[in-house]
Specification:
The complex is a heterodimer.
Chain A (H helix, E strand, L loop, with lengths): L1 E8 L4 E3 L19 H10 L8 E4 L4 E6 L3 E7 L4 E3 L2 E2 L4 E5 L4 E4 L8 E5 L33 E4 L8 E3 L9 E5 L8 H9 L3 E2 L7 E5 L14 E2 L4 E3 L7 E3 L6 E2 L3 E5 L1 H8 L9 E3 L2 H17 L4 E3 L7 H8 L10 H6 L3
Chain B lengths: L8 E4 L4 E5 L6 H16 L5 E6 L3 E6 L6 H12 L11 E8 L7 H7 L4 H10 L2 E6 L6 E4 L14 E4 L3 E5 L2 E4 L4 E3 L2 E5 L20 E6 L2 H12 L6 E4 L1
Parallel strand pairs in B: 5-13
Antiparallel strand pairs in B: 1-2, 2-4, 3-4, 5-12, 5-14, 6-7, 6-13, 7-10, 8-11, 9-10, 9-12
Helix pairs in contact in B: 3-4
The chains are: A alpha+beta, B alpha+beta.
Keywords (chain A): ATP-binding, Hydrolase, Nucleotide-binding
InterPro entries (chain A): CT_A_B, Cyclophilin-like_dom_sf, PxpC
Protein name (chain A): Biotin-dependent carboxyltransferase
Chain lengths: ~350, ~240
């Protein structure tokens, strides 16, 4: 048995997969990866199912050491400086750690969450069909909590397969698309316009439950208390203070604030990767457009195996690329203290 | 005020879920409609639905937009919602033991004072109630019950507590509830039960279902302690009166 030992890691890092939908009627949140496309890309690079469990790494750096044999990994999501024992490694590609070698990952640049998939997957005991960590409910495997230094992720030895890279569409710097509802009738037309016409920023006090937005105050027509109803990933609820909160995969399954709109499925991962403090806008689309985009997103995930290439024509000047790309360390949307305080 | 909306409103919750809303308020008739629609969908599944989440006044229907569109699903949901309410079949009834007051229910005295009565009467009234699980939500096993008598209706606390104990039995607004995990709450804490409505590695993991009938019995602190040990070992502790 090979294993990847977590030799150092920051907060907001945990094992995540496609999540555990199916028990929301009992109050059990689905959890799962913040950026599903990046999870799928990392897994595809090492031949895993797209939504198999991988390590979701928060904005800070991390190091992993192979023990008991070689370990092959796939890296995707928020790019970082990466090397294995001084040998530069590119994001959106696979790499193999020989026994005893250490993978060093720097801070996330231009995003918050990176995914490290391990060839053959992570050994664990699925709960409700998932290894995803939900610290509040005591769920997740091999550890029902965020990862810490010294944790060990067991897997089978590396196959020795040739390394691959994957071409992903460039993330558009476009507005985050939403469909209005379910409670947009709790807001005046003027408030809805203000919501669409304003610049928003994600607050540093955000976590896997919700991203708080900073911008103009959005007022309700009839007050901010509604009878609790069900929530989804991307529900944009507006509490009394008028600063919206976008619900993320560790959300409560029900909520009692009016929800003005919902982030569309195809844009959810791009939204989750939005760095704190960076201005962005929302754009309303029709249901037909949102559903067409959801289908296109599904097709994109399915096309990932066809988007892989060998490393030969990659022009291995990774270090130069990385140097060119360091535009200051991005401030993450995830606040370490908030996230840790939520752990019982 | 007209309460139950027939037909219900179909509200988009993004591109992969529809909220089927039967009322804007907490309303038992609407909740029965919600649970009835939920049962009809279980009995006669619609392709593309991935899961349903009943709440007080609406049913949240998650679906895969690759399988079925908003319009197609909405049409089928409205057709099912238009059916007459099924005559109530067998209802499960649970009797849940509660240690009221003292360290287990730190707000009991204050609630009695506010309602200008004695703690004993608050307990007697709460125990006399015939409740139903209207919804489970927020955190695993948090069961919101309908059927709280008017006398016990009280606004929530001005300052919600950040941490209330696992098993808390509390009242807030027109509702009473069984809280499973420790967590924040703005409700008034009347007591605690040893019953785990959610317990990993127990079969079933979730004890209560939306629609279950609930009554409470008062137990002393010593009994609570014994039941708490039994529940930790995997016993239900709650008594299934009718199945």
């Amino acid at each position: 048995m090979s294993k990847l030992v977590v030799t150092s890691i920051g907060p907001a890092s945990s094992v995540q997969d496609g999540g555990r939908p199916g028990s929301q009627r009992y109050g059990l949140t689905p959890s799962g990866a913040m950026d599903r496309l990046a999870l799928a890309a990392a897994n595809t690079l090492v031949g895993n199912d797209p939504f198999a469990a991988a390590v979701e790494i928060g904005p800070f750096g991390a190091t992993f050491t192979a023990r008991g044999g070689a370990v092959r990994v796939g890296l995707s999501g928020a790019p970082r400086n990466a090397d294995i024992g001084g040998r530069a490694v590119a994001f959106d590609s696979s790499a193999t750690l020989a026994e005893g070698e250490t993978l060093n990952l720097g801070f996330a640049r231009g995003g918050s969450f990176s995914y490290l998939a391990i060839e053959h997957g992570i050994e664990g005991e699925p709960m409700f069909g998932s290894l995803a960590v939900n610290a509040r409910a005591g769920l997740g495997s091999p550890y029902p909590r965020p990862l810490q230094s010294g944790d060990e992720l067991e897997t089978r030895p590396a196959s020795g397969a040739a390394e691959r890279r994957i071409d992903l569409p460039v993330m558009a710097d476009a507005p985050i698309r939403v469909v209005f509802g379910p409670q947009d009738d709790e807001f005046a037309e003027e408030s809805k316009r203000l919501f669409l016409d304003s610049e928003w920023k994600i607050s540093a006090t955000s976590d896997r439950m919700g991203f708080r937005l900073e911008g103009p105050v959005i007022r309700h027509l009839h007050g901010h208390n509604i009878v609790s109803d069900g929530t989804v990933n991307g529900s944009i609820q507006v509490p009394g203070v008028g600063q919206p909160i976008v619900l993320m995969p560790d959300r409560g399954t029900s909520g009692g604030y009016p929800k003005i709109a919902t982030v569309i499925t195809a844009d959810f991962g791009r939204f989750a990767q939005m760095s704190a403090g960076r201005p962005f806008r929302f754009e309303a689309v029709t249901m037909a457009e949102a559903q067409a985009e959801a289908r296109a997103f599904r097709d994109l995930v399915r096309s990932l195996p066809d988007r892989m290439r060998g490393m030969e024509d990659f022009g291995l000047n990774v270090e130069a690329l990385q140097d060119a790309n360091v535009a200051g360390q991005a401030v993450s949307a995830v606040d370490a203290e908030t996230w840790q305080a939520a752990v019982p | 005020m007209p309460e139950t909306l027939i037909p219900p409103r179909l509200l988009p919750s993004g591109d992969s879920a529809i909220t089927v809303e039967f009322s804007r308020n907490i309303d038992d008739a609407a909740n029965r409609r919600v649970l009835a629609l939920d049962r009809i969908i279980t009995a006669e599944p619609i392709g593309g639905i991935t899961e349903t989440v009943p709440t007080y006044r609406s049913l949240l229907v998650h679906y895969d937009p690759v399988e079925i569109s908003f319009d197609q699903l909405g049409e089928q949901l409205l057709a099912r919602a238009a059916r007459a309410l099924p005559t109530t079949g067998k209802t499960r009834r649970w009797r849940i033991p509660v240690a009221y007051g003292g360290e287990h229910g730190i707000d009991l005295e204050e609630v009695a004072k506010t309602l200008q009565t004695t703690p004993e009467e608050i307990i007697a009234r709460h125990v006399a109630g015939d409740y139903r699980v209207a919804m489970i939500g927020f955190t695993p096993g948090w069961s919101y019950l309908s059927g709280l008598e008017k006398f016990l209706h009280m606004p929530r606390r001005q300052d919600p507590r950040l941490l209330t104990p696992a098993g808390t039995i509390s009242i807030g607004g027109v509702q009473t509830g069984v809280q499973c995990l420790a967590g924040p709450s703005g409700w008034h804490l009347l007591g605690r039960t040893a019953v785990r409505t959610y317990q990993l590695h127990r079969d079933p993991t979730f004890l209560l279902e939306p629609g279950d009938a609930i009554s409470f019995t008062a137990v002393d602190a010593k009994t609570f302690a014994e039941q708490d040990r039994a529940a930790e070992a995997g016993e239900f502790v709650a008594e299934l009166v009718t199945a």
